C-alpha cells in the first residue's frame, strides 16, 4: 500500500522547465547514471517547454570503458539532446559546456544530490561561489544546496543551481489505499457526508462499523494514518507549486533587470 515513488516527479520538472530556456539534466558517471531515468527526465523537460541538455559528471572516477558504455546506451536510446561529459577535477569538458551556454538564456541544472552541479557551476563562474560538499563513498548526496540560486555568468548566460532531487519518496498512493481498504471504502456511501474522512465526522458509517467490531480497529487506524500521509503529500505539493510559480516570477524579473527578453 505504500509505494516507493521516484521523486522529482513530472510536475516538478515541468514546473522548472516552463520557467527556463534549457534544463541541464546532470548525472554522475560514477554511481548515478541511469538511462531510463535520463530518458524520463528528458521527456519531462520537453513537456515543460524547455530544451534538455545531458551532462555526465565525474568522468575522472570511471574507466574510459564505463563512460563509453554510458554514451553507447544514450546513443542506443535515440537521445537527440546534446550530451556533454565533464570532470570537475581534471576540468576536462568544462570549456565545451561554457561554449554551449548562450548569452541571455537561462540554464537550470537539475539532478541527484552529490552529482556535482554546484561544483560545475563554480567552475563556470571561475570561483567558489556556491557551497559544495564531500559525499559518502557510495556517491549518495548530502543535499548541500538547499535553495535555488540564480547566477549571471560573465558570458551573459543565466545559470540556476538547484538542490538535488530526492531519489525516493514514500507516498501512500490513493489507488493503493483504496485497494487495501476496500472494506472501508465500500462503507463510505453510508456516511452522512459525501466527503467524509471517517476521522471524526458525525454519522460516519465506517466509525460505526469499527465500534461494532465489524472492522478491526487497527486496520481502521492504519487507514487513517495512511490517509494523513497522502494528504500531507498533497499539501506539500501545493506549496511546492506555489514556490515554483514564485521562482518563475523571480526569473522573469531577473531577466527584466538585465534587460533580457
Ligand atoms: N571526482 C569528482 N568529484 C566531483 C566532481 N564534481 C563534483 N565532485 C565532488 O562531489 C561532491 C558533491 O558535489 P556538489 O557540487 O556539492 O554536488 P551537487 O550536485 O551540487 O549536490 P547538491 O547540492 O546536494 O544537490 C563534492 O565533494 C565535489 O567535490 C567530479 O567531476 N569528479
Ligand atoms: Mg549543490
Ligand atoms: Zn465516514
Describe this structure in words.
- This protein starts with a strand and ends with a helix.
- It is an alpha/beta fold and 261 residues long.
- The chain has 2 domains: 2-167, Rossmann fold, CATH 3.40.50.300; 173-231, Ribonucleotide Reductase Protein R1, domain 1 (Orthogonal Bundle).
- It has 9 helices and 8 strands.
- Helices cover 43% and strands 15% of the residues.
- Helix 2 links the parallel strand 2 (22-28) and strand 3.
- The longest helix has 41 residues, at 217-257.
- Strands 4-3-2-5-7-6 form a 6-stranded mixed beta sheet, with helices on both faces. A two-stranded antiparallel ribbon has the order 1-8.
- Guanosine-5'-triphosphate is lined by residues 57-58, 60-61, 87-89, 113-119, 132-135, 141-145, 163-164.
- Guanosine-5'-triphosphate binds at residues 57-58, 60-61, 87-89, 113-119, 132-135, 141-145, 163-164.
Amino acid at each position: 500500500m505504500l509505494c516507493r515513488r521516484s521523486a522529482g516527479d513530472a510536475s516538478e520538472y515541468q514546473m522548472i522547465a516552463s520557467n527556463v530556456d534549457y534544463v541541464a539534466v546532470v548525472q554522475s558517471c560514477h554511481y548515478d547514471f541511469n538511462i531510463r531515468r535520463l530518458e524520463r527526465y528528458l521527456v519531462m523537460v520537453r513537456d515543460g517547454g524547455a530544451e534538455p541538455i545531458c551532462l555526465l559528471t565525474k568522468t575522472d572516477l570511471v574507466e574510459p570503458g564505463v563512460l563509453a558504455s554510458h554514451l553507447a546506451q544514450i546513443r542506443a536510446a535515440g537521445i537527440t539532446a546534446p550530451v556533454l561529459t565533464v570532470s570537475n577535477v581534471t576540468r576536462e569538458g568544462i570549456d565545451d559546456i561554457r561554449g554551449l551556454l548562450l548569452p541571455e538564456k537561462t540554464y537550470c541544472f537539475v539532478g541527484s544530490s552529490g552529482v556535482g552541479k554546484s561544483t560545475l557551476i563554480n567552475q563556470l563562474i571561475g570561483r567558489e561561489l556556491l557551497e559544495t560538499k564531500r559525499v559518502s563513498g557510495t556517491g549518495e548526496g548530502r543535499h548541500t544546496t538547499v535553495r535555488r540560486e540564480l547566477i549571471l555568468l560573465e558570458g551573459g548566460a543565466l545559470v540556476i543551481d538547484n538542490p538535488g532531487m530526492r531519489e525516493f519518496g514514500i507516498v501512500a498512493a490513493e489507488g493503493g489505499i483504496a485497494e487495501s481498504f476496500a472494506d472501508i471504502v465500500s462503507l463510505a456511501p453510508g456516511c452522512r457526508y459525501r466527503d467524509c474522512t471517517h476521522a471524526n465526522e458525525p454519522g460516519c458509517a465506517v466509525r460505526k462499523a469499527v465500534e461494532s467490531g465489524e472492522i478491526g480497529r487497527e486496520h481502521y487506524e492504519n487507514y487513517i494514518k495512511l490517509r494523513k500521509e497522502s494528504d500531507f503529500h498533497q499539501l506539500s505539493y501545493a506549496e511546492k507549486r506555489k514556490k515554483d510559480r514564485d521562482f518563475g516570477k523571480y526569473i522573469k524579473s531577473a531577466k527584466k533587470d538585465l534587460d533580457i527578453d
